[in-house]
Amino acid sequence: LKHYLNRIEALEPQIHALLRLNPEAEQEARAVEQRLAKGEDLPLAGVPVVLKDNLCTRGLQTTCGSRILEHFVPPYDATVVERLREAGAVVLAKANMDEFAMGSSTEFSAFGPTRNPWDLARVPGGSSGGSAAAVAADMAPVALGSDTGGSVRQPAAFCGVYGFKPTYGRVSRYGLVACASSLDQVGPFARTVEDLALLSDVICGYDPRDSTSLKHEPRFAQALEQKQPLTVGIVRESVQVGNSPGVLAALENFRQTLEGTGVRFVEVSIPSLEYALATYYIAMTAEVSSNLARYDGTLYGLRVPGRDVSDTMMKTRAAGFGPEARRRILMGTFALSSGYYDAYYGKALKARARIKADFDQAFAKADVLLTPTSPFPAFQLGSKTSDPLSMYLSDIDTVALNLVGVPGLSLPAGFEEGLPVGMQLIGQPLQDERLFSLAQHFE
Ligand code: GLN
Q: What class of enzyme is it (predicted)?
């Protein structure tokens, strides 16, 4: 804990990965020592973890990177936080993020951007950029983020660390502030596959408080001991999308290295992949517009009093939401409005089913699929904030997995001009553990 607190003191002023430290961290670490002395078996004894600021922490502010929740102090811990504490982990700090997890660069935080530890002029990715940057800069050994359309995997790739989005339903969403509920999943960051597995074993598992939670025991550490003869399908459409030279080189190097360990590679096709971004940005904004309706100045968070109830709501929302949150609420409300519902939201649901069917077909030919995590490495701060479309395009490799609900692991796979490049392994539903045994071949 002292090591990481020292690192934070030295590096946080330049990187701004964190929104606040847990003032109780040292006290909590001492309590863990006592549990150990009593003979408790704690798989994460004393391990400091950083949590994205959309994971509820009892007594510790949880802002979602938004002014509207700036002073919100949850009265309870998210299930994942509860599980981490039970396992002996110590909450070190809350991490910066794009407002309500909407963004790909952490520049849409109401509390200022996070910088990429590899190059301070570049973004760390997003929306869990604070968590990824903290792990990359050794300000924490591990962290949690949330992934609605790539927000764990893409920042992991940009920061040169491991990031994992489990099969939808394997991690409880209880206490994760909702972004787009049918897509949201909590996921870990780490600097080694082994650490990623340790954390996954703790956070995955059934929770009766999340109605979409699945009964499926995690066996991640165990998977690291297994070597299965796997077939990996390289997704043609993702290779053809216009990747930067360093990303293509890393893909080829990955293939050659794994072929040397007996993994077989085939080419697979997911024809509907080209509709994934459009489908995602309709489905996700629709869900966002509904989920964010609760921030109305009456229940919790910011309240700007107005003439009457509706004036209070308008003033509160105008003062509390930043530009990207507004844009998505407007787009989502439009997509759901009568007269447009069938043309947009209804269509997106059909496209989502089609993409799922295409994934099923690809999985008939391969156990695991492979794409780059992002077509390019970390971009310059400020280069995409005024162009929402180009920001959305950076999610091209990640969003389909959330639409389909399948697991994805991003692993560090090389560099392009000094910037980390990530590869994405995609698993069949509930076959998350396979991704770990495969990733380990490359470590
Ligand atoms: N970048 C994507 C978006 O802006 C993903 C967000 C996420 O996974 N939370 O919607």
A: ligase
Q: Which residue segment(s) compose the domain that 1 sits in?
A: 1-268+350-443
Separation of alpha carbons 207 and 81, rounded Å: 13
CATH code assigned at 409: 3.90.1300.10
Q: Are 238 and 327 in contact (CB under 8 A)?
A: no
Any catalytic annotation for residue 290?
no
Strand boundaries in 191-255, DSSP class E: 231-235
Segment 56-111, tens digit of pLDDT: 999 999 999 999 999 999 999 999 999 999 999 999 999 999 999 999 999 999 99
Mutation probe of ligand 1 site: the residue of 102, 109, 289, 291 with most atoms within 8 A of C-beta: 102
The verdict on whether 211 is a catalytic residue reads no
Phi, psi of 8 (to 5 degrees): -60, -45
* 321 and 368 belong to one structural domain: no
**Where a domain ends, among 317, 342, 367?**
342
The reply to whether 244 and 391 lie within a common domain is: yes
CA of 394, closest atom in ligand 1: 1
The ipTM, to two decimals, is: 0.97
Same domain, 148 and 87: yes
- Is this model's pTM higher than 0.95 or not? yes
What is the Å distance from ligand 1's center to 129 Cα?
11
